[in-house]
Amino acid sequence: MSTVDPVTPVLTKRWLSPRSWSIQTYEQLEGYTALRKALTATPEQIVQVVKDSGLRGRGGAGFPSGLKWSFMPPNEDKPHYLVINADEGEPGTCKDIPLMMADPHSLIEGCVIASYAMRSHHCFIYVRGEVLHCIRRLNAAVKEAKAAGYLGENILGSGYDLEITVHAGAGAYICGEETALLDSLEGRRGQPRLKPPFPAAAGLYAAPTTVNNVETIASVPYIINGGSDWFRRMGTEKSPGPKIYSISGHVERPGQYEAPLGTTLRQLLEMAGGMKDGIPLKFWTPGGSSTPMFTAEHLDVPLDFEGAAEAGSMLGTTAVQVFNETVSVPWAVMKWTQFYKHESCGKCTPCREGTYWLVQILERMVDGNGTEEDIDTLLDVCDNVLGRSFCALGDGAVSPIQSGIKYFRDEFLALCQKNREKNRKPAMAGAN
Amino acid sequence: MTTSGPGQTYGGSSVTGGETYQAGHDDSTTAMDASVLSRAETTPLITEIREDLSVFDGIVDKARAIIARYPQSRSALLPMLHLVQSVQGYVSQAGIQFCARELELAPAEVSAVATFYTMYKRKPCGEHLVSVCTNTLCAALGGDEIYQTLREHLGEPGKPLGHEETAGTPGEPGSITIEHAECLAACDLGPVLQVNYEFYDNQTPEKAVELVDALRRGEKPAPTRGAPLTDFKDASLQLAGFFDRESDVEGPSQAAETLAGAQLAQDRGWTAPAMPANVAFPDLEKK
Question: Per the database record, which ranges form the NADH-ubiquinone oxidoreductase 51kDa subunit iron-sulphur binding domain (chain A) (predicted)?
């Protein structure tokens, strides 16, 4: 097999075109050809192609998409729903919003194909509310697609009907968790549900539902046109395909770089022009703040689902946040913990109370009033949140703390040293 | 109008109708007797306040159009709360009662939702809402400094503006509400801020001060990415799904950062592998 280029624009290939968001541009550049092709196949054949392609969920968990789709019941006793998770909010993550702004029709086309494959006739795109321009573009795209016959009744004469509703959220990170998203879409507080039942059995309105990330669904038209073998030419055996890596922070040219899965930070830094002003790298996240941080030791870790996990983190959303030597790790960890505390939905005790206390300990530490025992207390509280919370928000909340202490314990100790020098009795966190 | 008298249930409740044990009792007398507070203090606590909802007469049709988008009416609640904000610039008690009436929910059910989400404001907002990302990455790049500078610049001497506080009279031209926001999904363009949820990328304290000063003078500087600026109420109407100006969609969206990878590939001649022509679907046996 011939080698593959370092940057492989598939999802991003139309972004440089004028008015890339319009249906005219989309149609000129092979848009909606995959839909025509898909409608000649059976739903089962489409699920099989997606299974064969090895496509894995791009929202962070990496669950095999075709397998997820196959959990939908074959009968239609109840309506089936496809819900697109466009609630991009994981700190550092900024791939789905630019995708939907630049090329909304690729998501719409993916939605029609995926809905057809899962026998759904109503698809919802749940977009976080703070991205008005993106919501505007999606609404316009739905309108254009409908006028062109790609949506609505009897799509392209196939007899298949589909409605797409664009739904704006209202500012809650937790709604990126799929069952919280469904509760939110039902007009409730966004709080996660107990699983099982999984959404495929009882999701939106207790009907069979599949929740997929934007990038996952936008990949589907290319898989239909190119086939599973083509898709597998990029990426690795278990993590095939291209992936949008979002590089942010202290690099010369931050931005969106679509590269085969398994690309390393060293390669990404080369694309992004290296560290900003030559100041050395200190720590980075492979896929958002909920993925344990890495250091300069991890420059050559292949950033695919297996590689990141073997090195002690997770691939997450491939939101590569790069921090140089000027940034204090305890400060960064404190800021992230403040975020998790603010976004904890309050449903379960370990996360609600845990994040509340973790923040206070970290804040007083950063203020220079911590003690060495605080480090053990932090890790102890983390142990009681990790794996004991209702959903993954709690697990994510402890990632920066545990990994920060693992790699940079000295920095935490140095802050405690400051306190000892002041020769003060430590105050109890939260006692003032 | 949804009432909350005894013996009645609300939409969404699993309790079926029929009289409850309370029926026939005079609730107010019982509550008065049981209360440790004086009569005058107890009265407002047990009296249902019915707000005048006529301010929303103009959006009844829009509310019903939202409800029609969904298989079940309650799904309309989030967009309807955005709609209510487009009228008053916040979610008032009247706004809550309006949503409850239209969706046949209890006001308490609507309140529970309205208080959960950050974007629903409980106090009247300024003409513009300025949201500064202070999550870790933006903060490290200067977001904390931008937020601090704006708080001081918009506040009184020695009394910086707090989170969700307003400079000027809410709703009046030139008034600005400021808030610190969590990650706004524009990290490659950090530090970022938003005005009425349109993006202003790669900010500095100086640029941010210039921006809010222009807003106070009644100017509407164009966002880096987004449609021409209007105001918070108009943005709320769009979030409810009503887009009146077709040209808004043309607003810029692609910064150099957004296109960095695609541009690099074009410059170097890098592409994804070519797709084979006419790939057949897998041949599945009919079940």
Answer: 330-375
d(CA A326, CA A279): 8
Q: Using a CB-CB distance cutoff of 8 angstroms, which residues of chain B are in contact with residue A342? A: 182
Mean of pLDDT values over A263-278: 98
Q: For each of the domains in chain B, give its residue range(s) and CATH number, in order of start.
A: 7-19+34-122 (1.10.10.1590), 128-242 (3.40.30.10)
Q: How many Å apart are CA A381 and CA A297, to the nearest integer?
A: 28
* Domain over A23-232 is classified CATH 3.40.50.11540: yes
Q: Which residue of B has its CA nearest to A326?
A: B140
Q: Is A42 on the interface with B (CB under 8 A)?
A: yes
Give B108-162 pLDDT, tens digit per residue. Answer: 999 999 999 999 999 999 999 999 999 999 999 999 999 999 999 999 999 999 9
Q: Which of residues 137-196 of A touch B (CB under 8 A)?
A: 137, 139-140, 165-173, 184-190
The domain limits of chain A are: 23-232, 242-324, 329-422
Tens digits of residue pLDDT in A285-299? 999 999 999 999 999
In degrees, rounded to 5, the angle at the alpha carbon of residue B201 between the alpha carbons of residues B151 and A324 is 90
- Structural domain A242-324, CATH architecture: Roll (3.10)
What is the value of ipTM here, to two decimals? 0.95
Is B187 close to A343, i.e. CB distance below 8 A? no
Of B235, B265, B281, the CB nearest to A9: B265
**Does any CB of chain B come closer than 8 Å to the CB of residue A98?**
yes
- Contact call for B188 and A256, based on CB within 8 A: yes
Predicted TM-score (pTM) of the model is 0.93
Residues B66, A405: Cα–Cα separation, whole Å: 49
* The domain made up of A329-422 is a member of CATH 1.20.1440.230: yes
- A/B interface, count of CB pairs below 8 Å: 277
Residue type, A339: F
